[in-house]
């Protein structure tokens, strides 16, 4: 535990390094679920500052985690020890060279899909409605409608928190699986090189339109959620299993199982993180009792940050 003087000194050094120090920031303001207690946040506009900022935190023995768009994140009500490093949305433009494009990891995923479409580059249309940043999509190998972002990755620039070095990784040094990758929790995606198939702009727009229509028809796009809460078990659909047990509309506090998609939990009535966690546990127990299937969370849950590093 740092003294008040140490905290003030550290905050001053963070500011001098070029980042913004936001003490006691409510994480509910930074997550699509709209829940989460306080944490000290460092807002980073320039990713090149990461090595210096992490060095400062290490000097004070302060643990840290990285956050992008906050769209697949559940933070506990009690708040977090340590510091959350928040990469602000990228100001740098995408850089195109023939069928390849270099994208800042903090760039919005939907914006990236449409910017590539303008260059007649497709292959990511299914990701158009997936919220959050490119970096978040890379970390979990986000996918939808037959598309996974890992399929089009050719190289990636990563900050290794453990060593403090920036490395450029080639395909053989990365592993992308279903909603899982080989990256460590303290690896920070800085940018990615994608290689995309050429397609007529009109064809891409038509596919985007189809994906958006499917998403609006089947997902609670106008409510606060974190997307799918559970990964699909092998050969099964988590949403279908939950639906078969008649759990759509099930409520704990302000959290509700969406009537539109059973694998979405929505913050409909000013839910707390505790409400959502209780509903997650209830669903997992019911599914295990009925089917003998252990559901694994797709949403990332942050509890005591001090235990993570």
Mind explaining what this structure looks like?
The protein has 309 residues and is α+β, with helices and mostly antiparallel strands. It has 3 domains: 4-89, Uridine Diphospho-n-acetylenolpyruvylglucosamine Reductase, domain 2 (2-Layer Sandwich), CATH 3.30.43; 95-205, Uridine Diphospho-n-acetylenolpyruvylglucosamine Reductase, domain 3 (2-Layer Sandwich), CATH 3.30.465; 222-302, Alpha-Beta Complex (Uridine Diphospho-n-acetylenolpyruvylglucosamine Reductase, domain 1). Helices cover 28% and strands 24% of the residues. It contains 7 helices and 18 strands. It has helices at residues 4-17, 50-59, 109-118, 134-140, 201-218, 238-244, 273-291, and strands spanning 20-26, 38-44, 64-67, 73-75, 83-87, 95-97, 100-104, 143-144, 147-148, 153-160, 165-169, 176-177, 180-181, 187-195, 251-252, 255-257, 265-267, 300-302. The protein has a 5-stranded antiparallel beta sheet, covered by helices on one side. A 4-stranded mixed beta sheet has the order 1-2-5-3. Helix 1 runs antiparallel to helix 2. 41% of the residues are buried.
- Radius of gyration equals 20 Å
The total beta strand count reads 18
Q: Averaging pLDDT over every residue, what do you get?
A: 94
Task: Kindly state the percentage of residues in helix.
Answer: 25-40%
**Helix/strand/pairing category:** alpha+beta
Low-confidence stretches: none
């Amino acid at each position: 535990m740092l003294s008040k003087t140490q905290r003030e000194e550290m905050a001053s050094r963070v500011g001098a390094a070029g980042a913004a120090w936001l003490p006691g920031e409510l994480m509910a303001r930074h997550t699509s679920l709209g829940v989460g207690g306080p944490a000290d946040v460092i807002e980073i506009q320039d990713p090149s500052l990461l090595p210096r900022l992490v060095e400062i935190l290490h000097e004070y023995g302060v643990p840290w985690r990285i956050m992008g768009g906050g769209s697949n994140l559940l933070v506990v009500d009690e708040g977090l020890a340590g510091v959350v490093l928040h990469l602000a949305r990228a100001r740098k433009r995408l850089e195109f060279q023939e069928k390849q494009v270099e994208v800042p990891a903090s760039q919005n995923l939907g914006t990236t899909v449409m910017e590539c479409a303008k260059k007649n580059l497709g292959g990511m249309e299914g990701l158009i409605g997936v919220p959050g940043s490119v970096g978040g999509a890379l970390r979990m190998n986000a996918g939808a409608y037959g598309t996974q972002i890992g399929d089009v990755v050719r190289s990636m620039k990563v900050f290794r928190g453990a060593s403090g070095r920036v490395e450029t990784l080639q395909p053989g040094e990365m592993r992308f699986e279903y909603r899982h990758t080989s990256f460590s929790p303290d690896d920070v995606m800085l940018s990615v090189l994608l290689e995309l198939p050429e397609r007529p702009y009109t064809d891409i727009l038509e596919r985007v339109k189809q994906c958006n229509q499917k998403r609006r028809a089947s997902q609670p796009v106008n409510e606060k959620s974190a997307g799918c809460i559970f990964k699909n078990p092998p050969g099964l659909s988590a949403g279908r299993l939950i639906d078969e047990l008649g759990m759509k509309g099930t409520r704990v506090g302000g959290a509700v199982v969406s009537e539109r998609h059973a694998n979405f939990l929505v913050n409909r009535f000013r839910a707390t993180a505790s409400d959502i966690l209780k509903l997650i546990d209830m669903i997992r127990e019911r599914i295990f009792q009925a089917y003998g299937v252990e559901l694994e969370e797709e949403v990332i849950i942050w509890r005591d940050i001090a235990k993570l590093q």
